[in-house]
């Protein structure tokens, strides 16, 4: 080969942009199913922020099932179809179905995860698919424990809209090791009724102001620090299905935050076993 031509070829290869190098060695993209809709959130906007943010960060194609219904009982297309996740590598639950009470319906939603399809759960998914006296700690094996056993943690309520300081309790985990701690805009801090088999990754700390009545009838304002687990992993069911969850993500500004999208994307990649495999994390 002509030495000048060989040198030019070498220079050209070295000069390839990172995106071209990534494209040349990109495996088949993951297929993710994102489920949104229901009460109390701007899902019409948030679903698209999640799709674009995840696809920009990883070799993932996100399909959507969405309902514009804004009640706690959204008529999602997955209901009554236990095979709704066929062909997908992961299901992202971001629905708020907090008022449904049918354990048979819940079993259908859980079926893909029982069968081994990984799950990622965001914010109000933690308060969905509950029945019975769910405000009390559930008993393993009970009908109203199934969704919490899948998630790995039981939560039933949240605090006021105040900033939450996110701190990692496991900086060596594949999900968190490249991430930095941050403080959110006004957000909802979800309670922890009980941690089942979930493994904590991050805690959230919120300053809550409470009015306390004095003996003379006056009131004074006191500040209380509340801290709960806000991101965690779980292995669910007989197939040890990988599940990642974060209770953060109420407000659209949080969902649009690059740090939140980084956390969610790495959670997806961990759940599917791709977080350390070449060709799945896109170069920045």
Short overview:
Helix content is 25%, strand content 32%. It is of the alpha/beta class.
Helix fraction by DSSP (H/I, runs of at least 4):
10-25%
Topology as H/E string?
A: HHEHEEHEHEEEEEEEHH
CATH level 3 topology: Rossmann fold
Can you tell me the overall shape?
A: globular
Instruction: Order the strands across the largest sheet as they lie in space.
Output: 2-1-3-4-11-10-9-6-7
**SSE-based structural type:** alpha/beta
The counted number of beta strands is: 11
How would a crystallographer describe the biggest sheet? Answer: 9 strands, mixed
Radius of gyration: 21 Å
Approximate strand percentage:
25-35%
> Which CATH class applies here?
Alpha Beta
- The appropriate CATH architecture is 3-Layer(aba) Sandwich
Discrete helix count: 7
Number of domains: 1
pLDDT < 50 stretches:
3-16
Mean pLDDT: 92
**Superfamily at the CATH H level?**
Class I glutamine amidotransferase (GATase) domain
């Amino acid at each position: 080969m002509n030495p000048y031509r060989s040198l030019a070829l070498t220079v050209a290869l070295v000069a390839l942009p990172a995106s071209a190098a990534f494209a040349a060695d990109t495996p088949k993209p993951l297929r993710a199913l994102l489920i949104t809709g229901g009460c109390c959130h701007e899902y019409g906007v948030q679903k698209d922020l999640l799709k674009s943010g995840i696809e920009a960060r990883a070799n993932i194609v996100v399909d959507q099932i969405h309902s514009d219904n804004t009640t706690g009982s959204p008529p999602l297309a997955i209901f009554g179809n236990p095979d709704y996740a066929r062909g997908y590598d992961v299901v992202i639950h971001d629905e708020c179905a907090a008022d449904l009470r049918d354990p048979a319906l819940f079993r259908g939603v859980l079926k893909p995860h029982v069968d081994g399809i990984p799950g990622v759960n965001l914010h109000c998914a933690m308060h969905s698919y509950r029945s019975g006296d769910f405000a009390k700690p559930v008993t393993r094996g009970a009908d109203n424990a199934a969704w919490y056993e899948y998630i790995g943690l039981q939560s039933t309520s949240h605090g006021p809209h105040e900033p939450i300081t996110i701190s990692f309790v496991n900086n060596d985990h594949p999900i968190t090791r490249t991430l930095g701690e941050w403080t959110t805009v006004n957000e909802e801090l979800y309670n922890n009724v009980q941690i089942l088999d979930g493994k904590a990754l991050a805690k959230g700390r919120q300053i809550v102001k409470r009015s306390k009545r004095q003996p003379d009838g006056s009131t004074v304002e006191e500040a209380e620090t509340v801290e709960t687990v806000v991101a965690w992993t779980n292995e669910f069911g007989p197939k040890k299905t990988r599940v990642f969850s974060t209770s953060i993500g109420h407000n659209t500004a949080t969902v649009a935050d690059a740090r939140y999208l980084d956390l969610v994307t790495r959670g997806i990649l961990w759940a599917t076993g791709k977080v350390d495999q070449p060709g799945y994390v896109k170069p920045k």
